[in-house]
Every structure is written in structure tokens, then in C-alpha cells.
Fold MET27 protein.
Amino acid sequence: GTGMGLPAAVRDRVAAVHRGSALPERLRLYDGWAALYEQDVAALEYRAPYLAAASLAFAFPAPRAEARLLDVACGTGLVARELHRRGFRCLDGVDGSAGMLERARSTGLYQELQLCVLGREPLPAPGEHYDAVTVVGALGEGQVPSTVLPELLRVTKPGGFLCLTTRSNPSNLRYKAELEAALGQLEQRGAWQKLLAQEVEYWERATSEEESTQGTGYISGVVYIYQKCPVPDLEEG
């Protein structure tokens, strides 16, 4: 079971960015990974971009071409490609890695791309600006903190959608529990409504035996879809 059928170099690169390194170091790793990122996630059979885009498209009322979407932690543009295939055309992206943004820019799928380190600085967007916001693959241990949820809500229009994903592998379970508590608190406050929480068994290939779900060689994950409530909660302001 060594390596779960993945090339050692791929395993090492994936493990490096998930290790608990400090933020500047992690962003440097992402910059360095940008050139090999897409071939590595193909080797991982990483299905999150496809699953997230399919889920959002399912929830989203037509028409899609005019809808404004923000792809948070957009990486090289994998999510944009899937959204584009489903008729979404007005995409903006933000990421903490300049190297990743450079790749995303070369896809030609985004109208605007900006450098933004989520959790450290606000999103570079006015309030209630987007019809949908996606955060695919970045909500995890040592990555984007669950404290960013109100900031994601801030830039979403009332009635707009938020599509979030996280992993369910052992090393991310504590984070996942924190995330779900934060999601639930915002729902209780009337900030948004949960439309979907879809557990997916074959999310991506595991990089180690310990992380694999019941010896499958894969880890599982979740797609969440929330809709921002049309009436703001009274505590704000």
C-alpha cells in the first residue's frame, strides 16, 4: 500500500501544501507548484471542481450567462473551466498565490483576477456584489480558516448562492467539525439557508494509507450549497 498508486513526487508535493507550514511558506509552495498543479490533480483524480460546479448549477436558477460569480482560492482555474462548461460566463477570481493567478489568467476564463490572502484581508469586492461565491478545495486544516464565512456572505447578493467544499479525511476532521459548527451558527442566525450537504466517497486519491477511507485508496469530501437569506439579520449594523 505504499504510495496508493501515486508517483512519489506527486505525493510529496500534495503533502507539502497540506502540512502545517506558516502562510508565507505555504504560498511559496503553491507558487512553485503552479506549473505542475494540473497534472498532479489529474493524477489524484481530484473531482471537487466538477462536483462543486455540478452542484451549483443544479441549485442555480437560469439564466446563468449574466450571473456574476466569484471563484475564491481559484488556483489555476479548474473550477472556472467547469463553471464555464455549465453556462456561467461572468467569473472573477482571487487567490493568495501569484503563481496560480498567472496560470488562471492564461485560461482567459476570468474577467478579473486579484491577489488576496483570505483570512488575512477582506475580499476585494463591494458588498452584495455576486450572485454566487465558490470556495473549492481551500477550506481545510492549515489553509483558509472557517472564520472567513461572514466575509463570503458579505460579497454575496441577498438570495445568492455559496458553494463550499471540504475534505473528510482523518487529518481534516477537526477542521471539518469547526467549519460545520460555523455554518450552523450562521444558519441559526438567519444569515443563510442550507440547500445541500452532499458527502462524496471518491473525492480524490489518498496520499497515504492513514488518510484513505476504509482502505479504498481514496478520501471522501463534502459539497455544501447555501443560499443567502433575502432579509439581513437584525444584529448587523
